[in-house]
Design a protein that fits this description.
By secondary structure, the chain is an alpha/beta fold. It has two domains: 155 residues, 3-Layer(aba) Sandwich (Rossmann fold); 116 residues, Nitrogenase molybdenum iron protein domain (Rossmann fold), CATH 3.40.50. The chain is built from eleven helices and eight strands. Strands 2-1-3-4 form a four-stranded parallel sheet, with helices on both faces. The chain has a four-stranded parallel sheet with strand order 6-5-7-8, with helices on both faces. Helix 4 links the parallel strand 3 and strand 4. Helix 8 crosses helix 9. The longest helix has 26 residues. The N and C termini lie far apart (55 Å). About 9% of the residues have low confidence. Bound molecules: zinc ion.
Length: 305
């Protein structure tokens, strides 16, 4: 009943802002948000501001696909006010936790429910974790806007007395994301159909679709393969030579060996296109954000087009 009540509260808050009294949130107590991966962590932090204590569950370098939660992780999820994950089979290890009566958190936000999903390219992959949809939804800035909006709605519901605070923060962050998206639109509008090359796994399906770019990648999707076949190597080299591709991309989880080989053979420049999957411990401590990473992606893409 309390939940139902705060749900109603959120809707009528704008009308009766001053007369509403805090219901399930004591003064100065921060909303506890637990998130799985870095982009969700950053979106929650941007929208929650000082009213939220946001925890990033996956350590630097860890993959949402194959993560094994620790008992402490389960406790953190259970005790949170809001747990944010990708959902839709992207993080199967969360299923049991959010379904069990003993561990389920008060509120769950599944980010993949808020964006238009694209199919997964893993069709050849025989691993047990074959997903129906590509999970790298955050590589599209428009999707980032949708997710931030969904987080704002959840916070307004959970912490209704402070709805105006979240509304304002979400608006500011949404503007920032829109500007960034516009910058990419301007950069790519005369390059539609251009091919960008990854000597790496491919996590940018939503990104390339948004800006109408083609891609050529050593490994489809976020496959766990890391050793390229001789055929893959020669295909990449031929492609870069033939199309006079100036830049070969790698992503943050790569050992860069394949990119090095292709660049040595072709004279192309090796650059990082950050998939924002995971950041290093130093970057995390330094307070790096999704928009910081996307700004450097912008510079890298500029050189590639
Ligand atoms: Zn991935």
């Amino acid at each position: 009943m309390k939940k139902l009540f705060s749900l109603l509260m959120c809707g009528i808050l704008m009308l009766c802002f001053t007369s509403c009294t805090p219901e399930n949130n004591t003064e100065n107590e921060k909303i506890q948000i637990v998130t799985t991966i870095f982009p969700l962590y950053d979106f929650a932090r941007q929208v929650g501001g000082e009213r939220a204590q946001v925890t990033l569950l996956l350590p630097s370098g860890a993959e949402a696909h194959s993560y094994e939660p620790s008992p402490q992780d389960v406790i953190k999820i259970k005790e949170s006010d809001l747990f944010i994950h990708l959902g839709m089979d992207a993080d199967p290890w969360t299923d049991a936790i959010i379904r069990s009566k003993d561990t389920k958190p008060k509120n769950v936000l599944s980010a993949m429910e808020y964006v238009e999903l694209l199919g997964d390219e893993h069709s050849h992959d025989h691993s047990s974790q074959m997903a129906l949809y590509d999970q790298h939804i955050w590589t599209s800035i428009e999707n980032a806007e949708e997710i931030a909006e969904a987080i704002k709605d959840a916070l307004c519901r959970i912490d209704a007395p402070n709805a105006q605070y979240y509304e304002k923060r979400a608006e500011g962050y949404g503007d920032k994301l829109s500007l960034l998206d516009e910058k990419f639109e301007n950069l790519t509008e005369n390059h539609q159909g251009s091919t960008i090359v990854f000597a790496d796994r491919f996590a940018f399906r939503y990104f390339t679709e948004e800006y109408k770019l083609n891609h050529f990648a050593a490994f489809p999707g976020c496959s766990s393969e890391s050793e390229p076949s001789a055929r893959t190597v020669s295909q990449l080299i031929d492609m870069v030579k033939k199309e006079k591709i100036p830049v070969v991309f790698y992503t943050e989880t790569s050992n860069q060996k394949l990119a090095d080989t292709v660049c040595e053979e072709t004279g192309a420049q090796k650059l990082l296109l950050h998939s924002c999957h995971t950041v290093t411990k130093e970057q995390l401590e330094g307070g790096i954000t999704y928009t910081d990473l996307m700004e450097s992606n912008y510079e890298a893409l500029k050189k590639a087009l």
